[in-house]
């Protein structure tokens, strides 16, 4: 699969918290953690499980930092 996004970070799934429609997927990317919100349907389609190797693909027009 080819993507236009250029920011792909390899990591492992460390937690999946499912709601009725959406789920939070927490990934360990080199000791840093990234959380993504995806549909429960996407979790099922990908057969995503804790311990799976994944890529966090980031596509954004801006990054906002707050302190």
Query: What is the topology, as strand order, of the major beta sheet?
Result: 3-2-1-4
Q: End-to-end span in angstroms?
A: 37 Å
Gross morphology is globular
Q: Into how many domains do the coordinates divide?
A: 1
* Secondary-structure content class: mainly beta
- The low-confidence parts are none
Mean pLDDT, to the nearest integer, reads 90
Proportion of residues in extended strands: over 45%
The helix fraction, in percent, is 10-25%
CATH class: Mainly Beta
Judging by the overall fold, what is the CATH architecture? Beta Barrel
CATH homologous group name: RNA polymerase II/Efflux pump adaptor protein, barrel-sandwich hybrid domain
Pfam family, one: TOBE
Organism: Paramagnetospirillum marisnigri
Keywords: Molybdenum
InterPro entries: Mo/tungstate-bd_C_term_dom, Mop_domain, Transp-assoc_OB_typ1
């Amino acid at each position: 699969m080819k993507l236009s996004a250029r920011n792909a970070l390899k990591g492992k799934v460390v937690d999946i918290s499912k709601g009725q429609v959406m789920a939070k997927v927490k990934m360990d990317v080199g000791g840093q953690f990234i959380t993504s919100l995806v549909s429960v349907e996407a979790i099922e389609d990908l057969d995503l499980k804790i311990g799976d190797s994944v890529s966090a693909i980031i596509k954004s027009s801006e990054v906002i930092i707050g302190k």
